[in-house]
Amino acid sequence: MTWQTLGLEPHLYDYLLSVSLREPEILTQLRQETARHPLGKMQIAPEQGQFIALLLQLIGAKKTLDIGVFMGYSSLLMALTLPIDGIVVSCEKSEEYAAIARHWWQQAGVANKIDLHVAPAKETLHDLIKTGASETFDFALIDADKSNYDSYYEQALQLIRPGGLIAIDNVLWSGRVADPQIQDNRTKKLRSLNQKLHQDRRITLSLVPIGDGLTLARKV
Q: How many CB atoms within 10 Å of residue 152?
């Protein structure tokens, strides 16, 4: 995992941010606090967040799904981007992280736009499908435990409308997916999902080398 785009020399990465990043101050503050956390590298890169915000605007998103909240950056980014009647359905299994995220959402004045479910994401997604939410979401971000990525993808695909977009983070996994000598469970799961998506005719596909690798899957 990484909090900046892979493969860029520090001076080039700094330049990229200096001429492109338009991060709201509240997001900068949250990102800086997250960076001090021992697991801070789980945070998406700011240029990646801005890219996601642009995608939301391009597809006219009003209802989104955030699978894996951590300290709240991605949900806050979505809530700030969506129109006033937009809603972010967020999945986080840790009450500790959920409490931190709620604090920042309240600070930003967008807590009313975020519907947080503190439970294992597979359960939340199953309940959404069971209660008739299939094909009602415009966008989903998958950025949670890698061992369940395939399940999250299949559930998100049911929940996303035709023409909607699923974004999947960490698909390059700091380059480990391209190294056949690395055979731990999470790497194998990501490698398998990448191969599956390449063949999946239910979607149109692009893997963008931003952050730690972001797959974009548009439901046909």
A: 25
